[in-house]
TrEMBL record:
Residues 12-240 form the ABC transporter domain. Gene3D superfamilies: P-loop containing nucleotide triphosphate hydrolases. Keywords: ATP-binding, Nucleotide-binding, Transport. Pfam families: ABC_tran. It comes from Bosea vaviloviae. SUPFAM superfamilies: P-loop containing nucleoside triphosphate hydrolases. GO terms for molecular function: ATP binding; ATP hydrolysis activity. Belongs to the ABC transporter superfamily. This is Nitrate ABC transporter ATP-binding protein.
Length: 255
């Protein structure tokens, strides 16, 4: 088992963080992790290994019982607006138009301006939904709803984007398209990303670094040295498959 150093230069620094729900054993157990500014990190692990709980600690939605989470050197004491979150379910509001759903994080703080609306339209354009702004979420497919959720998370140009299996419910082709959309948008804004997934190939395609979570601990981490921008054909080449195999073997060895 390797120990993972938090480092001092991370934009996100998780330092010896532990969390338990009530009297249960710790669900997140002394986790150290650091994400440099602008990096894309993935967390993989079996169901119930504590990934979502760790993501909630990184978002300030839960507070660690021990240890700390720092964003840009400042200890996190609650949810902050510079963090965007995309959940497994798109969680859109069906009584609002698609455009107003994208604008929601802005509307919660102030009345959106014409410029905000232009930015929301531009984001919808970038995720291929430029023509769908006036529709309601119930009139969109699952993949289109996930695109809206990604656009909504990016409207405030967050420094840090946290995603919890956002594409898990989608078919393989739609998922690949959304992975490309997400990478392009994050590269454009140099967004720092922590992405949780069950899917080893998804993690290898997206990430600069992948960590494996098992029983609340980070057991292994793997740098992904594939060139950027990532291209679809890389998925079928030997280096990609070798990385997937290495991750798979590391997951099998984790307790
Ligand atoms: N609010 C809660 N109260 C009590 N236990 C919880 C709560 N939320 C999660 N747990 C427990 O914590 C453990 C880890 O859950 P978590 O959602 O972090 O795992 P996960 O790795 O994200 O799983 P999945 O991949 O299935 O989403 C599970 O055993 C779960 O039952």
């Amino acid at each position: 088992m390797m120990s993972i150093e938090p480092g001092t230069d991370g934009f996100v620094v998780i330092d010896e963080a532990s969390f338990r729900y009530g009297a249960e054993p710790p669900i997140v157990d002394r986790v150290d992790w650091a994400i440099p500014r602008g990096a894309f990190h993935c967390l993989v692990g079996r169901s119930g290994s504590g990934k979502t709980t760790l993501l909630k600690l990184a978002a300030g939605l839960l507070a660690p019982d021990q240890g700390s989470v720092r964003i840009d050197g400042v200890a996190l004491t609650g949810p902050v607006s510079r963090i965007g979150f995309v959940f497994q379910q798109p969680t859109l509001l069906d009584w609002l138009s698609v455009l107003d759903n994208v604008l929601l994080p802005v509307s919660l703080k102030r009345r959106p301006t014409a410029q905000d609306r232009d930015e929301a339209r531009a984001l919808l354009d970038r995720v291929g939904l430029g023509a769908y702004g006036e529709r309601h979420p119930g009139q969109l497919s699952g993949g289109q709803q996930s695109r809206v959720a990604v656009a909504r998370a990016l409207i405030t140009e967050p420094d840090l984007l946290l995603l919890d299996e956002p594409f898990a419910a989608l078919d393989a082709l739609t998922r690949e398209e959304l992975q490309d959309d997400l990478l392009a948008l994050c590269a454009l804004h140099a967004t720092t990303v922590l992405f949780v997934t069950h899917d080893i190939t998804e993690a290898v395609y997206l990430a600069d670094r992948v960590a494996i979570m098992a029983s609340g601990r980070l057991h292994h981490d793997l740098p992904i040295d594939l060139p950027r921008p990532r291209r679809r054909e890389m998925r079928y080449a030997q280096p990609f498959n070798a990385l997937c195999l290495a991750l798979r073997q590391a997951m099998d060895e984790a307790p």
